[in-house]
Design a protein that fits this description.
The protein is mostly beta strands. β14 and β15 form a beta hairpin. The longest helix has 14 residues. It starts with a strand and ends with a helix. About 5% of the residues have low confidence.
Length: 868
């Protein structure tokens, strides 16, 4: 075993990993970075200069563009313009040929950052790809990076952006627009206004560092920080899980007492029993042994109720809700019913070859969707009654649902509903499952912050007259402001910068104190606000097997569809279990099989706990948010002793998820992901993750989306991986950017054909300590870091199957902050290297064991903080 040579500045050529992503995510919120309004601009690049892409606006026709490989499928004309007099149109009505258009090559310089901008729209089909390509003096291609024009924004003109650092040896570059033939055979895409600029690289963080703190820097420690036994400063995970642990509620009602028998449909009885028990003060509803059917989704909004089976091997629930071809159903509303502002109007239809959904009242369209990227296996359309009231006003209205299919068939149904601003509302889940624990959600108006609430503070300042009281639960939200989007590189049209749910503990005029220090900044200048929320609290599901029935008698699924990335099927895109707007709710001893979408999912939840569960397979494995196991828009959740098989992404975190812990679990065939949105301060601990599955896993052991991910956006600060065992096809850890202060500690990574670590951009201040990396067919160098990856510490790691140099920085100008105690060995020993042995086996359990001291330290720091 040899020591890794120091890695000051390595000038070897940078070989990029090209990642063809076929993934999906839900349209949901994001979370907040450490940068402040006083530091609004990313600082990793110097002043921009035009790189001079000739005729980038196509005003001179096809001059300086090569159309020889476009096969008459591309042309310049006025119909494709965004600005000026002309744009580029790529169109095919009947065939699926590959169409390629290439710009003239222009000079490029190594170690400069190039920024390509454009405008694009998709009028038909599924969009196109484009590449910024770099060549050496002999014309050999050194690097290509991909941008995408997708249907996520419908047929609207949308700006696109791609940032690339030129590799060593680069002399020229060009832009390749390539509409590949493996997409839909019918397409129509317009492009215009290509601009190319270059920037000198400045070796500095993209924003002022906040999250990496030394134990001795006591003046920087906040109430949201915990000094660990190893001297590292961690997030505070003592809040994770059901407060006080999952209770064992006594049985107060047997479902058989309401007439349930083996072989019955018990959907309505479960709802009736939950409401009855909750009204009596709470307790457990026992289903009993046997096989029971759920012919409709079960929606429970009752507090302090446990739905309990006799065990996953004795109580089986078969979910068989589906919509026959040619039918459209309004969901949980009756003709003539009155609905309040927090309610929703929703209809369901058969999903096979569905292309468009519309909800109307008379000639007025209330909402509509058409099939595009991230469509998934959509079967429903909804609108909030508050939005419908804005358009229609109060009163009785005829609402029509319309579904359109590939063959031109339309299915339509109408219902009369009375809309009222003063009527109470009923809750529906944000992502429909077979069994849903659902709180009411937002209640009342949004209350803007009058001053900032900073990381580690627990005080929110509002204008007087807000009406909040101690005991209220509130959500605090930082929207995705233009400042923040530019800073971190967030381009999705959906998503918030940050969000969380807290409980109000005290109110003094406009000063509201909450129970927990915030994990990130909520800035008044970004439009941050709070809003009261009504949550289901203290309820759970226990001890049964839940399975979604495959729709019987449906025709063969046919070829995969390029939009949905899966086969057309009749099975509904419903999850197994969904918690939505829930506080302190749990799932334990439950097995979920053949879910239509996600086995168990928890949007808008606080203190959820999932343990001793088995999740196996999803019927739909395409894009749009499918086959996930983890937390979305969830805060301080705990998942422990879970086993999964046949999922796409798991453990998975997305859309502002923060403070969650996933530990002691096995994920077979799915990759570990921070999939979308600005997730922060989450912990993966002591999990086995085998990411080599073919059901949608990207193949990287751990993957984090970034600015170049388009619809997914970058990931946030101080996520932690501690003592995991990870097996991958591709890279062990693949980070596409936005990652500040991550802690990768004491893990074993094994890859068949990938790097140890790849970090693209806006990825800095990481601590990578005590890991074992086994690279069976090493991509060298094994560690590739971005030009702005400053402050990275690489210490006490063992690399097998590699030769030096071990570390390379894009642009060749950056160095490691610490490079100590690392070793490398070209040969891989047999048997395989053992997992590392950390001095503290579980950092989570250590925190739990020291909760009192951690809370006392937080209180002390809060008392010393200066309140402006």
């Amino acid at each position: 075993m040899r020591s890794v040579p120091p890695s000051p500045v390595i000038l070897a050529g940078f070989v990029s990993l090209f990642l063809a992503i076929s993934s999906g995510c839900d349209r949901a919120p994001v979370a907040s970075p450490s940068p402040t309004s006083e530091n609004p601009a990313a600082a990793s690049l110097g002043s921009a200069h035009s790189a001079g892409l000739p005729n980038g606006d196509f005003e001179a026709g096809d001059f300086a563009w090569d159309f020889s490989n476009a096969k008459d499928l591309a042309k310049v004309g006025v119909e494709a313009m965004k600005n000026g007099r002309a744009g580029l149109r790529i169109e095919s009505l009947v065939d699926d040929q590959d169409a390629a258009v290439v710009s003239a090559r222009v000079p490029a310089e190594p170690a400069k950052a190039y920024h390509l901008k454009w405008n694009g729209r998709v009028l038909d089909g599924s969009g196109t790809t484009l590449f910024l390509r770099f060549f050496d003096r002999d014309g050999n291609e050194l690097l290509r990076e991909m941008g995408r024009v997708t249907t996520d924004h419908g047929n609207q003109w949308t700006p696109g952006s791609l940032r690339v650092v030129a590799p060593a040896g680069a002399a020229e570059l060009d832009v390749l627009i390539q509409r590949t033939g493996n997409r839909l055979p019918k397409y129509l895409v317009d492009l215009d206004d290509f601009e190319l600029s270059s920037n000198p690289i400045l070796v500095q963080a993209p924003w002022p560092p906040t999250y990496k703190i030394r134990a001795e820097q006591t003046e920087r420690l906040t109430a949201a920080d915990v000094v660990g036994p190893d001297g590292y400063v961690y997030p505070d995970w003592t809040w994770a899980g059901v407060p006080g642990g999952i209770p064992r509620m006594p049985v107060v009602l047997h479902l058989a007492d309401l007439g349930a028998k083996d072989g019955d449909n018990i959907s309505g009885l479960l709802e009736q029993a939950a409401a009855q028990v909750s009204a009596q003060g709470g307790g457990a509803v026992e289903i009993g042994a046997g096989t029971f059917y759920l012919d409709e989704p079960v929606v429970i909004s009752s507090d302090k109720v446990a739905i309990r089976g006799a065990g996953a091997d004795q109580t089986k629930l078969l979910f068989r809700y589906h919509i026959p071809t040619g039918e459209l159903r309004f969901f949980r509303v009756e003709d003539g019913e009155e609905l309040g502002p927090a309610s929703t109007i929703e209809f369901h239809t058969n999903p096979r070859n569905l292309v468009a959904l519309e909800m109307k009242s008379g000639n007025t369209t209330l909402t509509q969707r058409s099939r595009r990227d991230h469509w998934g296996n959509t079967f429903s359309l909804r609108i909030g009654v508050d939005k419908a009231l804005e358009t229609l006003g109060e009163g009785l209205h005829t609402i029509s649902g319309i579904a359109e299919y590939e063959d031109g068939t339309k299915v339509e149904r109408s219902i009369n509903l009375r809309l009222s601003r003063g009527f109470s509302s009923k809750a529906l889940p944000s992502q429909l499952g077979a069994i849903n624990l659902v709180g009411q959600g937002p209640d009342g108006s949004r209350l803007p912050l009058v001053s900032d609430t900073r990381r580690g503070e627990n005080v929110i300042r509002l204008a007087q007259g807000h009406a909040l009281q101690a005991g209220d639960r509130i959500t605090i939200v930082a929207p995705a402001s233009a400042r923040w989007r530019e800073l971190v590189g967030h381009t999705p049209k959906w998503g918030d910068q940050a969000q969380n749910i807290h409980e109000v503990t005290a109110v003094d005029d406009g000063t509201v104190t909450i129970n927990q220090p915030v994990r990130t900044n909520f800035l008044a200048a970004d439009g941050s606000y709070v809003q009261k929320v009504l949550l289901i609290s203290g309820s759970g599901l226990e001890g049964f097997h839940l399975e979604q029935e495959v729709v019987p008698g449906q025709p063969p699924p046919g070829p995969k569809h390029p939009h949905t990335l899966w086969y057309p099927i009749d099975d509904l895109w419903t999850s197994g279990v969904t918690f939505s707007y829930a506080w302190g709710c749990w799932l334990t001893g439950v097995n979920v099989r053949n879910t239509g979408r996600n086995a168990a999912y928890f949007p808008f939840t606080k203190h959820s706990e999932i343990r001793d569960c088995v999740f196996e397979d999803s019927l739909f494995k395409g894009g749009g948010g499918t086959g996930y196991v983890g937390f979305e828009r969830s805060w301080d959740g705990l998942m422990e002793k879970v086993q999964t098989k046949g999922m796409r992404h798991g453990p998975n975190l997305q859309w502002s998820a923060a403070g969650n812990v996933i530990r002691n679990s096995r994920f077979l065939g799915s990759d570990g992901q921070w999939h979308a949105g600005w997730t922060l301060e989450n912990l993966f601990e002591n999990n086995f993750i085998d990411a080599r599955g073919t059901g949608g896993s990207y193949g990287h052991g751990l993957y984090a989306s970034g600015p170049s991910s388009g619809a997914h956006g970058p990931q946030g600060p101080r996520n932690v991986c501690y003592y995991n065992d990870v097996v991958a096809r591709k890279d062990c850890l693949h980070m596409l950017g936005g990652n500040e202060g991550w802690m990768i500690l004491h893990n074993r990574f094994t890859t068949g054909d990938g790097r140890a670590i790849y970090a693209k951009e806006k990825s800095f201040d990481h601590i990578i300590d005590g890991n074992v990396f086994v690279l069976k067919q090493a991509q060298l160098p094994p560690v590739v870091l971005g030009a702005d990856s400053v402050g990275v510490e690489l210490v006490n790691n063992a690399f097998y199957g590699v030769t030096p140099p071990v570390v390379e920085f894009v642009g060749g100008q950056t160095i490691l902050l610490r490079d100590e105690g690392n070793t490398w060995q070209e040969e891989i020993p047999r048997p395989a290297p053992e997992r590392p042995t950390p001095a503290v086996p579980s950092i989570f359990q250590w925190q739990r064991d020291h909760t009192a001291e951690i809370r006392a330290a937080a209180e002390s720091r809060l008392s010393k903080s200066v309140v402006p």
